[in-house]
Amino acid sequence: MKEIKVFAPASVANVSCAFDILGFALNDIGDVLTFRKTKEPGVKIIMKNEQQLSEDPEKNVAGVVALAMLTMAGVDFGVEMEIEKGVSPGSGMGSSASSAAGAAFGMNHLLGGVFSMQQLVKFSMIGESLASGVEHADNAAPSLMGGIILVRSLNPLDVISLPVPENLYVTLIHPDVEVQTKKARLLLKQTVPLSDAVIQWGNIAGLISGFYSNDYSLIGRSLEDVIIEPARALLIPLFEALKAAALSAGALGSGISGSGPSVFALSEGKETAEKVAKAFREIYEPSGIEFKIHVSTVNKNGTHLI
Amino acid sequence: MKEIKVFAPASVANVSCAFDILGFALNDIGDVLTFRKTKEPGVKIIMKNEQQLSEDPEKNVAGVVALAMLTMAGVDFGVEMEIEKGVSPGSGMGSSASSAAGAAFGMNHLLGGVFSMQQLVKFSMIGESLASGVEHADNAAPSLMGGIILVRSLNPLDVISLPVPENLYVTLIHPDVEVQTKKARLLLKQTVPLSDAVIQWGNIAGLISGFYSNDYSLIGRSLEDVIIEPARALLIPLFEALKAAALSAGALGSGISGSGPSVFALSEGKETAEKVAKAFREIYEPSGIEFKIHVSTVNKNGTHLI
């Protein structure tokens, strides 16, 4: 084996009402990591793009994951990781999770597959913790495993793969403004009214139910966030207009992807998802803010060799 | 039609983590309501047992439901309702909901079935509001509809029938101490830490997922309530001992039924549910407190004519 290459997809976490417990993987957008075994121990990182990300392995999301895995495996070799970022940092599409998931998956391959998927999610969380100051798995788990992933519990880690409705499409707009996860977390109140929590968990239960029962209307009715979105929406230019446009175009619902600034919408069918993309474009084009729009199914493959 | 008789089952609401949004109906235990049309308008109530419940229709749970339905239907006749309580008031098994559901179902029959199931749930909520001071549907909806019912939203009302795992059994102990729903609600803090809310909705999502996927282990892991149970457990003598005994006997999980004092456990299979019943008995017998124990599947029929 001279080298291996891994693709680790972007992901949408939180999914409106399901803050910190739900995420799904996207197609096409993702990081590509190339791994080469080295005789000298330790981790060497080469950033092919996104030069503002550190190449110091202890300050790099993929680096800390690789270091932890080398240490845990107790091997005498090292690794060189070349990272080509496809997911922009601070986009709200799980950029750090893609790098962490890619590192965990690729390293496991180099190490002969000694670690379980659950362990790979845990290793990825080391990277997430470096990036956001908080251990979470709602981007890393879907990026690794693909599909829609419920993180029922972090401690102990309990991740559950949910069914993906066959005709579910994602439209995503990434405005070129940076929202740091750390800062977005600081906006959140540390307590919530019990009455709002009850509304929120009713919606979460409805959303999970909708995924299992292929009930698009129920998915739509459940995509409402009364706790996190009201606090974070202010960070995203034209958020309310995007959301209204998505619903007018026929989307089931729309919300902040991760901690923003990307905004996602879910639709039944590609045609509606394309209409939502057009509606997003019409909102953003006059603003002068750069943006990218993606239409995607839910990626069922997760991180894989290429 | 001289008279009709209706059976309205008891129910378990809240179901650990799913405060105010989930409930399921029980077999065997329930209220029996007998309806007779009368020429004179209005509602006459005859309590066959439980004499402490008012026979004044405006102060009786079934009475306010029947009055509202007569008014809404705009008919010129009245009704005499004979109520035989099978669900003890203040037991935590949805006593007021059984009477409300029975009244709604029976009245709808008398009125020629003009109201939808959703409307019947709404009428039942008028009774629930009289009983507890709060409109809720997590007992009345399962009592009416049977099965496991998710109340995704109260406003607008959105109730969803969840799949019932084939081999799911309930063990329930009803200690003879009264807990009034109104008082149990006063014990709850009006705000919750966001971190606890996230743990709770992870468990709710896991529980719903477990019902759909027949994953008993996931149901068990999800039956944990970090918000309501810690506040209310103090009202129930020997609660922690019951819970520990249920788990030792092999139950998936255990928690407070409604606002207590009844305590339920869920098990995979009747044999385990019977073991849990035995374990409950061994905890309570030495206490000197009177109690009743029931073992039941989830009642899939709901309220029906007998």
Can you walk me through this structure?
The structure is a homodimer of 306-residue chains. The first copy, chain A, has 306 residues and is an alpha+beta fold. Chain A folds into two domains: 4-162, Ribosomal Protein S5, domain 2 (2-Layer Sandwich); 168-297, GHMP kinase, C-terminal domain (Alpha-Beta Plaits), CATH 3.30.70.890. In chain A, 37% of the residues lie in helices and 27% in strands. Chain A is built from ten helices and twelve strands. Chain A has helices at 61-73, 95-110, 117-132, 140-145, 181-186, 194-213, 216-222, 229-232, 239-248, 270-284; strands at 4-13, 22-38, 42-47, 78-84, 148-154, 157-162, 168-175, 191-193, 253-256, 263-268, 291-297, 304-305. In chain A, strands 1, 2, 3, 4, 5, 6 and 12 form a seven-stranded mixed beta sheet that branches. Chain A has a four-stranded antiparallel beta sheet with strand order 9-10-7-11, with helices on both faces. The two termini of chain A are 14 Å apart. The relative contact order of chain A is 0.18. Chains A and B meet through β5, β6, β8, α6 and α7 of A and β5, β6, β8, α6 and α7 of B.
Largest interface: A-B, 38 and 38 residues
- The overall pLDDT of chain A, averaged over residues, is 95
What would you say the CATH architecture of the largest domain in chain A is?
2-Layer Sandwich
| Helix and strand composition category of chain A | alpha+beta
**Percent range of helical residues of chain A:** 25-40%
The CATH topology of the largest domain in chain A? Ribosomal Protein S5, domain 2
Tell me the number of helical segments of chain A per DSSP (H or I, 4 or more residues long).
Answer: 10
Evaluate the radius of gyration of chain A: 19 Å
As for the number of domains of chain A, it is: 2
How many E-type strands of chain A?
12
What share of the residues of chain A does DSSP label as strand, in percent?
Answer: 25-35%
List segments of chain A where confidence is low: pLDDT < 50 over at least 5 consecutive residues. Answer: none
CATH domain class name of the largest domain in chain A: Alpha Beta
User: For this entry, what is the oligomeric state of its chains?
Assistant: homodimer
